[in-house]
């Protein structure tokens, strides 16, 4: 099936992965999607008038392995890569950034050698330092050294620094989840976009859809955000089940968020 030509898209769902579709886990590899979630995504993708994209900071290969659902649109590395179903990936960052990221990865691996609880994750278009399981007494020292390496190999003019939940990540400048959403949405100008995410990097997408779509922050408590609405993660899954059951008509406007069943 050619998913790009399947039908007129009326509702476009943009979904973050970690913290939105699955709980935050101690390590990225532990955040495995349950079978129910995969079945739900299969159902959503098969719905007429509906398109589904996963917008994640994860690497593309990792997303493909975690979510083997034909028909999903994918954006990886915080917007640096976009892939349509059945098509080769599109890299939005300059190839010259790869060499800089390679140098940073090598030096960062040496930095954490012999230190417990730190992990360097090299994605296709970014480098992440995870420290969720690290000794708190070592964290500041390692983070300061990582920032020094970042400044040496990936300076401000060429790369952005992203601070997440117990992770620091370096990505090429000029890309974001917001730019990825705009590119994907351009193919469906009449669709209502709904973006759901929990992370500070999702704020770029919230801003990109300001005045047009429905943006939902996934959080248990109120916090500063540009999203229009806030839901807990269980409520988000209930909302997606409602869309899967009733189709695009379940959400008809940016102000018509239904009460999940």
Automatic annotation (TrEMBL):
Entry keywords, A to Z: Hydrolase, Magnesium, Metal-binding
Statement: the UniProt record of this protein carries the keyword Hydrolase: yes
Catalyzed reactions per annotation: alpha,alpha-trehalose 6-phosphate + H2O = alpha,alpha-trehalose + phosphate
Cofactor entry: Mg(2+)
Signal peptide start and end residues: none
Pathway involvement of the protein, from the record: Glycan biosynthesis; trehalose biosynthesis
CDD domains recorded: HAD_TPP
Pfam families hit by this protein: Trehalose_PPase (PF02358)
Superkingdom of origin: Bacteria
An example Gene Ontology molecular-function term: trehalose-phosphatase activity
Enzyme kind, highest EC tier: hydrolase
UniProt feature coiled coil, ranges: none
GO biological process: one example: trehalose biosynthetic process
EC number: 3.1.3.12
Keyword Protein transport: no
Alphabetical list of PANTHER family matching this protein: TREHALOSE 6-PHOSPHATE PHOSPHATASE
Protein family according to the UniProt entry: Belongs to the trehalose phosphatase family.
Function: Removes the phosphate from trehalose 6-phosphate to produce free trehalose.
Name the UniProt record assigns to this protein: Trehalose 6-phosphate phosphatase
